[in-house]
Design brief:
The chain is an alpha+beta fold. It has helices at residues 20-37, 86-100, 116-121, and strands spanning 2-4, 7-10, 44-51, 57-66, 69-77, 105-111, 125-131, 138-145. A hairpin with a 2-residue loop joins strand 1 (2-4) and strand 2 (7-10). The chain is globular, with a radius of gyration of 19 Å.
Amino acid sequence: MIDDADAAPVSLDITDTPAPEDIAAIHEGLAAYNSATAVPFDRRDLCVFLRDEAGAVIGGLTGYTQWQWLYVDCLWLGDALRGSGLGTRLLAAAEEEARARGCRDVRLYTYDFQAPAFYEGQGYEQWGVLEDYPPGHRQIWYRKAL
């Protein structure tokens, strides 16, 4: 319990299993603040799933659009599908949907042990690097104009 003579008592709850409604409260609170102080909150999830004949997810892309930008969070393909052109198709489909939503740019990050050459081959330009994250590696930030 945190107790300050000038404030109501509150508690800190640290967890690695948050309730969805608790996460929603944070997102909704920040969205309301941003809308009141800067620009309207227009975040929308954008996901592209690659499915096999049985409907199981065998690859895909997750992210969201907001403020005329697409943010790519994760892009994954199973080992057997890498190099098949499906990653390019997933990314192109997300970019196309982002354009339809009025986006002008894309941002994402990858790691030096993941796919920097892939993104550079898709026209992405590096704009930032976080050294030694994770230890011994680099997190690389990219952007692309749509």
